[in-house]
Design brief:
Elements lengths: L25 E5 L2 E5 L14 E4 L2 E4 L1 E6 L5 E7 L6 E6 L3 E3 L2 E4 L4 E10 L2 E10 L5 E10 L5 H5 L8 E7 L3 E7 L5 E9 L4 E2 L3 E8 L4 E12 L11 H16 L4 E4 L2 H17 E4 L2 E4 L11 H10 L5 H13 L19 E2 L3 H5 L6 E2 L5 H16 L2 H22 L42 E2 H20 L3 H22 E2 L4 E2 L2 E2 L12 H8 L4 H11 L32 H13 L3 H15 L33 H4 L1 H10 L1 E4 L4 E5 L9 E9 L2 E9 L5 E9 L3 E5 L1
Parallel strand pairs: 29-33
Antiparallel strand pairs: 1-2, 2-3, 3-4, 5-12, 6-7, 7-10, 8-9, 10-11, 11-18, 12-17, 13-14, 14-15, 15-18, 16-17, 19-30, 20-21, 22-23, 24-27, 25-26, 28-29, 30-31, 31-32
Length: 725
């Protein structure tokens, strides 16, 4: 019997060759540096291989383990603080025997580890307390190593050559691990201990400890990442000072945001973790804050992810949208470069600074292979103006908006049929260039892959919404002729779309048109994005909602990317049957747009239930699409990023959708259109919501009959609060 060989055609597929020993990793991130630890606070070599301390997509520390004698401590518990700033680990000693006699019983010594990232450095403090009734003598050791692996190597990409490790420099209080890359850049990992170790080598720092009963000892070390050319950073073990600096920075950031409290503590846990994750993923750039996509595989700028994250939390924190728009405007393509999938006016897909990207071993140093980032950029610009009334900024980026619209019409429509298609130009680039960009995501009813230039249904919706948004902006900026022209283009696209994409037998829009203009007649979540964009008719929108909330599409935890009825449905796949929180949030916003708030609330309830089972109440990038089973948890996806920015921001768009919340800053109005609170949310309090110069505190209450009352608790400045029933 011949054995079928299945080959993965996607060279950027994230490989997982061994199961994680414990999926509950602990993540810290600050700026361009992040770390993934196991629950002991260690970086070890087993499991899926993502553990490490990273800077600019390079692993600067591949091993960091604490040993008591020859053994790991016994783990009591570990967590990341609610604000994501500090990882804390409680552990104790195993039984210590000498000559067959137990000399230190387990549970005698309390070991407390805490870690924080700050300015390219991981600071750690270790406290050891003797709770025994006798003095104890023992040793502990820190084992370490640095492989300087590129993030794409860890994802599974093979390299023909690597740079060279330079001889480790060992000093009295620390050491320097070094690597010279093929890009001729020197990368250094410097480790400094306080107090000095008893013994120090290239791979181990050993400490001898004597503690009297009730006595405690404290140790600190700092692990710094440096790339040749970086600005100098003072490296010394100063844990307490760093914690204070980080706390002040977080307080400053939180001071600009509203505060949300609800009557449901589980919902509050989800909200609080989402806020903390957004702060962790938020990275300051020369253009303002930008939410990096996800840890560990996507901790960098992604155009699509940044735009969607910014839109999800726009009512909550519009500064993120401003930073995203400014960054992407500054990096908008002005050249035609097939190797980058770039054309003039196109918006960035991905930016990398690692060795492999610099050398061109992967195409992502500055890569534009995204069909939807460009119309999404224009959509976000329109939404940002409505939220803030920031006309000077709109005037500043209007040329970028016009260039994006020109790209849509000239380069996006490859064959002149009025639809925007993609077909990669770079041989090393992404085959599929919508948000479902895995190699097998776009297919026909029989499961065969769609070939040729692909026109995705949601992309046509985004283009429609972009032209509507640009039409409104043109009117604001005083160009009535351009405004009418764009509105006319949008309406013409809507008519073409309905004719070409609607599949009556599916009660849905086709996933895509292939290169021969044949529709991919597949029930997918993509159709829900068409509702989010507003391109669907009222009657067809209702049919799409019914399809997406049916048992075939709704798992009980959320809407699947592909319905169970379809040929390639696989609940364990990346894009063909899994559940993505951001996807669900956009779809729920589409439901609400067409007045179907109850269906949006069902999505909200499913995701809330899922958070109860996820570690730290954190929604991951995605999870498996198996049907919900009584008294069981959702099924994890093995290599999902957590946190992932657009998953973290999903809750804010879900709240906005159910409440019908719309901020109209140019009119100084805050509108609640037919607000709905699900049964599990009796009250929602929003404090210090800013609209222009005004601030308002609100209390929303669900009454017995189901309607929602909106009470203004405080109002500073001119602001109309309007409730539409």
């Amino acid at each position: 019997m011949a054995r079928e060989v299945i080959r993965i055609r996607d060279e950027f597929y994230i490989r997982s060759s061994s199961p994680r020993v414990d999926v509950r990793t602990r993540v810290l991130k600050q700026s361009d540096t992040f770390a993934v630890f196991d629950r002991f606070g260690d970086i070890d070599t087993f499991g899926a291989g993502e553990l490490g301390l990273y800077h600019q997509d390079t692993r600067f520390l591949s091993r960091l383990t604490l040993k008591l004698g020859k053994h790991r401590p016994l783990l009591l518990s570990s967590t990341v603080r609610e604000d994501n700033a500090i990882m804390a680990v409680d552990a104790t000693n195993p039984d210590v025997s000498r000559d067959g006699e137990t000399v230190i019983p387990r549970g005698t010594v309390h070991i407390f580890r805490s870690k924080i990232l700050w300015q390219r450095t991981c600071h750690e403090r270790l406290r050891i307390h003797n709770y025994g009734r006798a003095a104890i003598d023992f040793s502990f050791a820190i084992e370490y190593d640095a492989d300087f692996a590129d993030i794409f190597e860890l994802r599974g990409t093979k390299r023909e050559r690597r740079g060279r490790r330079i001889e480790t420099e060992v000093k009295n209080d620390g050491l320097v691990l070094a690597y010279e890359g093929l890009d001729d850049r020197l990368r250094l990992t410097r480790i400094v201990f306080d107090p000095q170790p008893t013994r120090l080598s290239e791979s181990v720092a050993s400490f001898q400890v004597r503690l009297e009963p009730g006595e405690e000892a404290s140790y600190r070390w700092a692990i710094a990442c440096k790339v040749e050319g970086d600005s100098p950073v003072e490296i010394k073990p100063c844990y307490e000072k760093i914690v204070q600096e980080a706390a002040h920075e977080l307080e400053r950031a939180h001071a600009q945001e509203p505060r949300i409290f609800t009557s449901n503590e589980q919902f509050n846990d989800w909200l609080n973790r989402s806020v903390a994750d957004l702060h962790m993923m938020r990275t300051e750039t020369p253009y303002g804050p930008y939410p990096y996509a996800g840890v560990p595989w996507y901790s960098t700028v992604f155009g699509r992810d940044g735009i969607i994250t910014a839109r999800e939390c726009l009512w909550f924190d519009p500064s993120i949208a401003r930073g995203v728009l400014a960054y992407l405007a500054a990096n908008q393509s002005d050249i035609d470069n097939p190797e980058q999938d770039a054309q003039p006016g196109k918006v960035l897909h991905e930016m990398r600074e690692d060795e492999m990207a610099t050398l061109g071993e992967i195409p992502f140093k500055r890569y534009y292979g995204s069909i939807d980032a460009t119309p999404l950029f224009v959509m976000l610009a329109g939404a940002y103006y409505a939220r803030t009334g920031d006309r000077p900024f709109m005037e500043a980026i209007w040329p970028n908006i016009e260039r994006a619209l020109a790209w849509i019409d000239r380069y996006g429509d490859l064959d002149g049929d009025g639809f925007v298609e993609y077909s990669r130009k770079s041989k090393r680039g992404l085959v599929h260039q919508g948000w479902k960009d895995s190699h097998d995501a776009i297919f026909h009813r029989d499961g065969d892959s769609a070939e040729g230039a692909i026109a995705l249904c949601e992309v046509q919706g985004y283009v429609y919404a972009a032209k509507v948004a640009a039409s409104e902006l043109a009117k604001v900026l005083g160009d009535a002729t351009r405004s009418r022209e764009l509105a006319k283009q949008a309406e013409a696209l809507r008519r073409r779309f309905e004719k070409a994409f609607w599949c009556d037998d599916l009660s849905s829009y086709a996933l895509a048109l292939d290169g021969s203009k044949q529709p991919c007649r597949v029930r997918t979540s993509n159709a829900g994005h068409c509702l989010f964009a507003g391109i669907a008719t009222e009657e067809r929108a209702r049919r799409v909602v019914a399809m997406l909330t049916s048992e075939a599409s709704f798992s009980g935890w959320g809407i699947r990317t592909v319905a169970t009825s379809e040929a390639r449905y696989n609940p364990m796949s990346y894009h063909n049957g899994s559940v993505w929180p951001h996807d669900n949030a956009l779809i729920a916003a589409g439901f609400a747009r067409y007045g179907l708030k109850e269906s949006a609330a069902v999505v909200l309830a499913g995701l809330l239930d899922a958070t109860l089972f996820f570690d730290l109440h954190r929604l991951p990038e995605l999870f498996c699409g198996f049907p919900r089973r009584p008294d069981e948890s959702p099924t994890l996806y093995p290599v999902a990023c957590a946190p992932q920015a657009w998953a973290s921001a999903a809750v804010f768009l879900l709240v906005e959708s159910c409440l019908g919340l719309k901020v109209l800053a140019p009119e100084q109005r805050l509108v609640f259109s037919k607000p709905l609170l699900p049964a599990f949310l009796r009250q929602v309090t929003i404090r210090d919501l800013r609209v222009g110069e005004a601030r308002v505190d609100l209390l929303l209450t669900r009454h017995e009959e189901g309607d929602v009352g909106v009470n203004v608790l405080r109002r500073d400045g001119a602001l109309d609060v309007v409730v539409l029933k």
